[in-house]
């Protein structure tokens, strides 16, 4: 009996050695895959954990959801000594062993910011340009490969510095909900959740950060160059003479915006293509993202509720650092479709997909609105912080009309 056991053990050991050899050869690749693996495992763990929580909690979401959630969590952790519990993580790559150079590189006190961006191989050169700008400001980069193509990225110089997540045909909001949990990104001061089709020639991440910090913007976006395609809301257009703006005036069109306007999209509004969140605003926004509504339509109108205060003050569009929206229809962003391209060889199929996606996004928008209304109805304690506050505020606002 014993001999059999030890023989088995030998076989197993041999397998391990063989695996180990292959491991040595492909160490670098495996390191990366290992990281992706770990992230995936974490997600699976979180998902099952939350599914468990959901069955525990009443079918209907109720006002006690948050406190119950915490209560369940602390019950499950009851047998751990408190000091060992780590409720947070981050997206920083770690060396397998510490060397003097790597340990000096890790500067705990320095600031951390995150760029998260969907990346299709067709947009490689544009994503490359964006990432280079952000890397020079020491951003952490996470790419969401929605077309399944990761191998096409290995030749870009920064590829191994980035975290790559792969899930085919998923949207930016799907990725964000699953991979940017507030507990995982809480070390980052600002989170840039951008589409890939943005031109950053006139954009400097460092200067942008200085502006949002000094102006106290919890949610912001860079303004869009007026010659951008796919401009949906006037407030996002760049004003040449400003550093930033927080509202727009518009007499024509379906949405009229005046001094009296207190609501998006006249003020307190950024669009979904290039939002930037502070840590607290992201904590809120992540909870606002609906798990099953992957196109994120309609959420921009409610983001102001995550502004950590008055949305007419804490949400803004930065003019001095601006971007060009190229309006390329991609799955990652899934904004409104652009006009059809006659040179597109795949035109019919492409149009078909676009139509279907648009239809889906529109129906999701309806669901989102209904959920919001229902939540408002059912939450007896909820008071709309932005209910019109009367003339006093408007007079005050007129005095700083230039912003
Ligand atoms: C970390 O960065 C701060 C300033 O950002 C600097 O004062 C400090 O010396 C750095 N520490 C290390 C170990 O590099
Ligand atoms: C980025 O990090 C490097 C190394 O820690 C540091 O020398 C450099 O000043 C940082 N750059 C910025 C813009 O913070
Ligand atoms: C993703 O979408 C493309 C185009 O619609 C399709 O050809 C492909 O099969 C899809 N992949 C998956 C895994 O659903
Ligand atoms: C318009 O956008 C293109 C890039 O799409 C840019 O090269 C050009 O300079 C822009 N023109 C103006 C007037 O800003």
Automatic annotation (TrEMBL):
Keyword Membrane: yes
Membrane-crossing residue ranges in chain numbering: 30-52
UniProtKB keywords: Membrane, Transmembrane, Transmembrane helix
The protein's name in its UniProt record: Sine oculis-binding protein
């Amino acid at each position: 009996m014993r001999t059999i056991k030890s023989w088995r053990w030998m076989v197993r050991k041999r397998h391990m050695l063989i695996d180990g050899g292959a491991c040595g050869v492909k160490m670098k690749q495996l390191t990366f895959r290992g990281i992706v693996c770990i992230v995936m495992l974490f997600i699976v763990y979180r998902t099952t954990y939350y599914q468990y929580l959901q069955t525990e909690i009443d079918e209907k979401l109720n006002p006690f959801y948050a406190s119950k959630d915490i209560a369940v969590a602390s019950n499950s952790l009851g047998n751990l000594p408190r000091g060992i519990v780590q409720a947070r993580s981050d997206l920083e790559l770690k060396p397998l062993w510490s060397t003097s150079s790597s340990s000096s590189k890790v500067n705990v006190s320095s600031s951390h910011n995150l760029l998260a961006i969907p990346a299709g191989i067709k947009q490689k050169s544009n994503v490359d340009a964006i990432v280079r700008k952000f890397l020079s400001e020491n951003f952490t980069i996470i790419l969401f490969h929605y077309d399944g193509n990761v191998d096409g990225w290995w030749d870009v110089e920064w590829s191994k510095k980035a975290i790559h997540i792969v899930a085919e045909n998923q949207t930016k909001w799907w990725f964000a909900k699953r991979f940017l949990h507030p507990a995982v990104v809480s070390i980052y001061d600002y989170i840039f959740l951008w589409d890939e089709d943005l031109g950053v020639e006139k954009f400097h991440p460092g200067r942008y950060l200085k502006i949002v910090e000094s102006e106290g913007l919890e949610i912001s976006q860079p303004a869009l160059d007026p010659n951008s395609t796919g401009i949906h809301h006037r407030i996002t257009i760049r004003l040449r003479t400003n550093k930033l703006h927080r509202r727009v005036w518009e007499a024509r069109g379906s949405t009229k915006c005046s001094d009296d306007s207190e609501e998006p999209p006249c003020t307190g509004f950024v669009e979904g293509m290039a939002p930037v969140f502070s840590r607290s605003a992201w904590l809120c926004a992540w909870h606002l993202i609906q798990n099953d509504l992957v196109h994120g339509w309609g959420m921009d109108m409610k983001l102001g509720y995550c502004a950590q205060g008055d949305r007419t003050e804490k949400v803004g569009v930065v003019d001095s650092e601006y971007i060009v929206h190229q309006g390329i229809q991609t799955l990652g962003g899934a904004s409104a479709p652009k006009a059809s391209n006659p040179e597109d060889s795949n035109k019919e199929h492409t149009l078909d997909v676009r139509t279907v996606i648009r239809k889906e996004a529109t129906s999701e928008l309806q669901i989102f609105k209904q959920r919001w209304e229902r939540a408002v109805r059912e939450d007896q304690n909820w008071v709309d912080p932005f209910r019109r506050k009367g003339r006093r505020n408007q007079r005050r606002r007129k005095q700083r009309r230039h912003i």
